Amino acid sequence: MDNITAAGNSSNETKTHFRVCRFIIETGVKLGMRSVPVATACSLYHKFFQTASLQVYEPYLVAMSCIYLAGKVEEQHLRTRDIINVCHRYFHPGSDPLELNEKFWELRDSVVQCELLILRQLNFHVSFEHPHKYLLHYLLSVRSLMNRHAWSRTPIAETAWALIKDSYHGPVCVRHQPQHLALTALYLALHTYGVQVPAGERDWWQVVCEDITKAQIEAIMTELLQLYDMEAKCT
Questions:
Q1: Are 66 and 89 in contact (CB under 8 A)?
Q2: Separation of alpha carbons 182 and 134, rounded Å
Q3: Which of 71, 78, 116, 213 has its CA at a distance of 20 to 30 angstroms from the CA of residue 193?
Q4: Degrees to nearest 5, angle at CA 102 with 97 and 107
């Protein structure tokens, strides 16, 4: 019975983290954040909860602090007031911005205190290398190997970029090396549309990323696809 309870708790926690990261991504868009700061905010969130408990920490407060901290790390500074107001509107659509009253200042203090907690929990390791630059390089490399018309007929690049963006809903983004995540996103995009890359002595993925195995690609693909199952459960 305990095993069933544990599995249920684990499933609920996974859903919570998915929903909170969706909140980070949507809030980031409304705040005008670039894709890399949003990715950093999600990575901070996942890293924090690798060692912290949902029973102890309020996930949406942690998320707000991760957005604030990511803005500093990626040099896209955001005012706490803007973050608080956008987050407030997320939960109360159509509402007015919060008054600068005691409730607002308490929330602002909580965000700042939580930021310090995150910094300590992560031992101030708050910079991340993201898959974006690797994916750009891999896309250029693979496109050069292919017939121009075969490439332009299918949205390979758009699909691969969407997979990278969606990967931040789950811990896959901090569990794997960024180049491996980028390569798997491209591999999955090509596979989705049945696009064959001309083969030489080695497969294309071995040429562009020498330190990954087929087993690793398949494991990361499984994690990515599980996120889409989770999305269906969280709508």
A1: no
A2: 6
A3: 213
A4: 70
Q: What is the pLDDT of residues 57-74, one digit of tens each?
A: 999 999 999 999 999 999
Query: What integer pLDDT is reported at residue 9 of this predicted model?
Result: 64
Q: Are 234 and 14 in contact (CB under 8 A)?
A: no
What is the pTM assigned to this prediction? 0.91
How far is the C-alpha of 96 from the C-alpha of 121, rounded, in Å?
A: 34
Q: Is 103 left (phi over 0), alpha (psi -120 to 50) or beta?
A: alpha
**Phi, psi (deg, nearest 5) at residue 13:** -65, -40
pLDDT in tens, 111-163: 999 999 999 999 999 999 999 999 999 999 998 888 777 788 889 999 999 99
Per DSSP, helices labelled H in 74-131 are 80-91, 102-121
The beta-carbon contacts of 199-208 under 8 Å, at least 24 apart in sequence, are 204/141, 204/142, 204/145, 207/141, 208/137, 208/138, 208/141, 208/142, 208/183
Residue 30, classed as helix, strand or coil, is helix
What is the CB neighbour count within 10 angstroms for residue 176? 19
Instruction: In the chain, count H helices and then E strands.
Output: 12, 0
